[in-house]
Amino acid sequence: MKRHLAGILMTLLSLQSLHALAQTNRIDIIRPDAPELAAYGSYAVGVRTLELLDPGRIDVLGTERGAANASYDRPLTVEVWYPAQLAANQQTGTEYLAITRDPSITARLHGRAVRDAEPLRDNRYPLIIISHGYPGNRFLLSHLGENLASKGYVTVSIDHTDSTYDDQQAFASTLYNRPLDQLFVLDTMAKLAATGSGSFLSQLVDIEQTGLIGFSMGGYGALNNLGAGFSEAAVNNIAGPPNRLLQARAATNPDYRQGLDARIKAGLLIAPWGMNTGFWDEQGLLGVSKPIFFVAGDADVTAGYENGTRAIFTGTQNSDRYLLTFANAGHSVAAPIPMPIEILSSDTPAVAGHYLDSVWDSVRTNNILNHFATAFFALHLKQESESDRYLQDIEQGFTRGGTLGLRLEHGPSAR
Q1: Looking at 182-336, which runs of residues are DSSP E strands?
Q2: In whole angstroms, how far apart are CA 210 and each of 8, 226, 348?
Q3: Within the chain, what is the greatest distance between any pair of CA atoms?
Q4: Which whole number is the average pLDDT over 243-267?
């Protein structure tokens, strides 16, 4: 354990010397060796924060086993990025105040979006919903939110109540609420995008073309929304929600399959949690028919690799799916933003480790993730068939030797 912590600290010091001055907590760095599609797109980007409220959600934390289910109005904060129309000489860039893995530390992140910019209404843009891990927050994958918005998407990243750095509650709440939060945000975005809604999103979003991005527990929720019903072991898990609440979205429940949202067309899942703990089984995984792009490190000890993400990739036989593997990488590869420099003031090595990988540079893995996310969603949400070449040949778009340590596999649908 001491050797592992020492390794994290050495990586931390190395990153400090190499990147601190260059990045100043920038989420938009594109390295010179970044793959082709990592670069920002042609759209200016606007960003706004919305406060949402889901009335009548079952209150997992307020429900006792064997008693009637309590309910409450569940609050969710979301960050929305979108293609924008900037005024003449309007400067790009904004600052995000992001609570970190150490809740006593707030980081100042810097990106390219413009706060409250006017939307560019030349099109209806596909929707991408971003869901963080446990714990996390809506800024953890903000590099993807901005980047994809610059390529003609509306991206919305969720602060999952009971799952954030400053509001981390019992795990049972996350197990129950994660897929429901994603669906509620989708429904809310549909209302805001409707003609005459009065929202800045009115007529801006193509709700029928929705993609999901999920990291860890975000991937758990997204996998369920893509058609993988929970196992009976998950429903009966002693640490899970009371009163068999997960049964509503279990593979054995016929109402679950009938209620799957057809607006969700594809998912990008980074180290999705649950396979190595029995929350998925063969029956549940066979229910997935939507295309999925999986991302994982083969040294992931949190969600697992052979018994985790790779097993999910193998089991989703009815999905046209991909698996991008980072050699020797752990659970936090690719998804999180680069470690905020404010974390240097934390005396807990695990806080830094939340953002770091022991082998891979964070900016590089962010760039690689942006590249493949761009190709995957262009193919499945925009039907841009030419993007498929980046998914069929990993060398496409990389500099010579740029794929060292990466493996990309394709599993065609058995259907």
Answers
A1: 205-215, 264-270, 292-297, 321-326
A2: 37, 11, 38
A3: 62
A4: 97
Stretch 245-260: mean pLDDT, rounded? Answer: 97
Three-class SS state of 185: helix
CB-CB contact of 368 with 35 (8 Å): yes
User: Three-state SS for 115?
Assistant: strand
For residue 128, give the nearest of 263, 240, 290, 308 by alpha carbon: 263
Q: From the centroid of its chain, how far is CA 391? A: 19
Which of 182, 164, 174, 348 is closest to 267 using CA atoms? 182
Q: How far is CA 197 from the centre of its chain?
A: 27
Tokens, residue 6: 């020492």
Residue 77 contacts residue 38 (beta carbons within 8 Å): no
Task: Find the Cα–Cα–Cα–Cα dihedral 257, 258, 260, 261, rounded to 10°.
Answer: 170
Q: What is the pLDDT of residues 309-332, one digit of tens each?
A: 999 999 999 999 999 999 999 999
In angstroms, the CA 81 to CA 95 distance is 14
Query: 0.70 exceeded by the pTM?
Result: yes
Structure tokens at 75: 């609050």
Amino acid at 303: A
Cα four-point dihedral sign 144, 147, 152, 157? positive
Phi/psi of residue 63, nearest 5 degrees:
-105, 125
Q: How far is CA 144 from CA 29, 43, 121, 279, 370, in A?
A: 12, 14, 22, 27, 6
Which tens digit of pLDDT belongs to each residue from 191-246? 999 999 999 999 999 999 999 999 999 999 999 999 999 999 999 999 999 999 99
Q: What φ, ψ does residue 379 adopt, rounded to 5°?
A: -70, -45
Over the stretch 18-50, which tens digit does the pLDDT of each residue have? 444 345 899 999 999 999 999 999 999 999 999
289-312: average pLDDT: 98
Rounded-to-integer distance, Cα 248 and Cα 131, Å: 21
- Whether 2 has a pLDDT exceeding 60, the answer reads no
